[in-house]
Backbone:
């Protein structure tokens, strides 16, 4: 730490603090702690040198390349004067705060990557948070708070829990976070999640309006990211990561869905029931995208055989198909999917919208039935570009 380049860099940072809007500092793994009590760690020494005011600083990130480091922010950081600082990002084994440094008093958005068990102490120290994002590989971080019936003292409206190891209940943490106020929640799926959400008071669980099943080639074909967009009195969004389609859906959760979005590569065979869905949007993937044995393209599935429909939507009125760049689609495959792959009450759709898409007439294969002409599938057929 006593080399000239370091102090030259520090001088530059201090010289520009008065007009800096964003400051991001990354400590290399080679900078190991000098004192386990935190008095002489590189980050502590660095922050102790930031004694100038930061009157317009809005974002501050303090990150470590390695793991296990603990932060000890000094009380005089930024001369206790950072009135515009709203966004704080840290990754460490923990952050030690006897009291909140005045420089952090205005922080409303906290993003953490933690490996330590001190999450409740940290949140209690930041009473003004509106948004909290936690990433960790240690599921014990989300164990119930040490005291029963404790609640976060502030008013969180956005909560993100990115915990790949989360395989047990997070109900205690969700109740602590007072999810009745949360309007945006991102969480990894685990068995019992929906029961925990209901117990925590997360709004909109019985008023789901939009469902999007994303096509994510990095996931196993039976586990895809599913985004649930909920609406109650105010707009509420629930994003469930890696929820398997085979997982049991809570009774009635899909009853109020009006908008469904999928990609053309699917991996389930049992139909989804959407009693009130009026719009279905299908995004086309690249035609050369490799598929696993469990996957298939919906517009290729309804030829000689008659598999079960993928969607039962009695109130369906419109289907939109969105291509990638300039895409062509077999007209017969489209017609067969709409006729067989989707069940709806009306004789025809009101609207069929084709975006960035041209239809081609392939020669029918032997044994294939002649489908309904595309022109007869909807009252209005619209070709559009993005």
Residues:
């Amino acid at each position: 730490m006593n080399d000239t380049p370091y102090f030259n860099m520090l001088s530059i940072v201090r010289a520009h603090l008065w007009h800096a809007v964003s400051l991001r500092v990354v400590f290399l793994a080679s900078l190991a702690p000098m004192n386990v009590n935190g008095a002489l760690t590189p980050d502590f020494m660095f922050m102790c040198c930031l004694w100038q005011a930061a009157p317009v600083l809005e974002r501050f990130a303090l990150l470590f390349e390695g793991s296990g480091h603990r932060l000890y922010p000094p009380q005089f950081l930024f001369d206790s004067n950072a009135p515009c600082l709203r966004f704080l990002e840290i990754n460490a084994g923990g952050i030690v705060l006897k009291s909140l440094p005045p420089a952090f008093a205005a922080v409303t958005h906290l993003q953490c990557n933690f490996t330590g068990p001190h999450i409740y102490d940290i949140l209690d120290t930041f009473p003004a948070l509106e948004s909290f994002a936690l990433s960790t590989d240690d599921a014990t971080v989300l164990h119930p708070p040490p005291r029963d019936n404790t609640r976060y003292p502030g008013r969180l409206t956005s909560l993100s829990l990115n915990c790949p190891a989360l395989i047990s209940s997070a109900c205690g943490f969700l109740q602590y976070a007072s999810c009745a106020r949360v309007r945006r929640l991102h969480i990894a799926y685990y068995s019992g999640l929906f029961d925990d959400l209901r117990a925590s008071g997360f709004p909109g669980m019985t008023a789901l309006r939009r469902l999007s099943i994303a096509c994510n080639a990095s996931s196993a074909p039976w586990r895809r990211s599913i985004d649930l967009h909920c609406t109650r009195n105010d707009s509420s969004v629930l994003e469930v990561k890696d929820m398997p389609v085979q997982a049991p859906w809570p009774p009635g959760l899909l009853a109020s869905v009006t908008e469904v979005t999928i990609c053309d590569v699917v991996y389930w065979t049992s139909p989804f029931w959407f009693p009130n869905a009026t719009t279905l949007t299908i995004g086309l993937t690249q035609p050369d995208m490799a598929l696993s044995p469990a996957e298939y393209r919906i517009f290729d599935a309804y030829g000689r055989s008659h598999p079960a429909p993928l969607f039962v939507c009695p109130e369906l009125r419109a289907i939109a198909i969105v291509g990638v760049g300039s895409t062509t689609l077999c007209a017969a495959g489209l017609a067969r999917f709409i006729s067989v792959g989707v069940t709806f009450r009306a004789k025809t759709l009101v609207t069929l919208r084709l975006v960035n898409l041209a239809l081609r007439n392939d020669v029918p294969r032997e044994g294939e039935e002649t489908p309904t002409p595309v022109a007869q599938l909807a009252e209005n057929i619209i070709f559009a570009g993005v």
